[in-house]
Amino acid sequence: MRNIWRGLNVNCADSSGYTPLHHAALNGHRDVVLKLLQFEASTNVADSKGCFPLHLAAWRGDMEIVRILIHHGPSHCRVNEQEHTFLVSTPLAAALATSSWRGVSD
Predict the structure, then answer these.
(1) How far, in Å, are 28, 46, 95 from residue 103 at the CA level?
(2) How far apart are alpha carbons 10 and 8 in whole angstroms?
(3) CA–CA gap between residue 84 and residue 49 (Å, rounded)
(4) What is the structure's pLDDT at 8?
(5) What's the helix, strand, coil split of the chain in %, to 5?
(6) By the 8 A CB rule, do 68 and 54 touch?
(7) CA nearest 75: which of 61, 88, 86, 65?
(8) What Å distances lie between residue 54 and 5, 33, 42, 102, CA to CA?
(9) What DSSP designation does 35 have?
(10) What are the pLDDT digits (tens) for 33-48?
(11) Which one of 9, 56, 81, 89 has the fewest beta carbons within 10 angstroms of its own beta carbon?
(12) Whole-angstrom Cα distance, residue 93 to residue 106?
């Protein structure tokens, strides 16, 4: 399995600027997130709208992936750069706006 990952660019991006880590975070694929991070996927690559994988996991309401991304670091608290005022947010604001986070506490 290790040979499959060797030589691949785990930070490549599609036409929307999504890296494999963006896709995995957005779709709740915890094991894929962990594997990508193991092979040096960057948590600090923004998509074409300024969203980081942490934003996407927070919007999805996936606390486990949010924790993985925060603890993996380096993690910067950044505001995404979307032009629509209601979409400009930090990952925390995105998480609080997601109904699946209601009632969750640490």
Answers:
(1) 20, 29, 12
(2) 6
(3) 10
(4) 78
(5) 50, 0, 50
(6) no
(7) 65
(8) 23, 11, 11, 18
(9) H
(10) 999 999 999 999 999 9
(11) 9
(12) 17
Write the single-letter amino acid at 57.
A
For residues 58 and 54, give the distance between their C-alpha atoms in angstroms, rounded to a whole number.
6
Q: Select from 50, 47, 49, 38 the least CA-distant residue to 19.
A: 47
Residue 20 predicted with pLDDT over 60: yes
Residue in the structure block whose two tokens are 């750069």: 81
Q: What angle do CA 106, 71, 62 make, to 5 degrees?
A: 55
> Hey, is 53 helix, strand or coil?
helix
How many C-beta atoms lie closer than 10 Å to residue 63's C-beta? Answer: 15
Structure tokens at 38: 């193991």
Q: For residue 28, give Cα distances in angstroms to 2, 23, 89.
A: 23, 9, 20
Number of residues assigned to the chain: 106
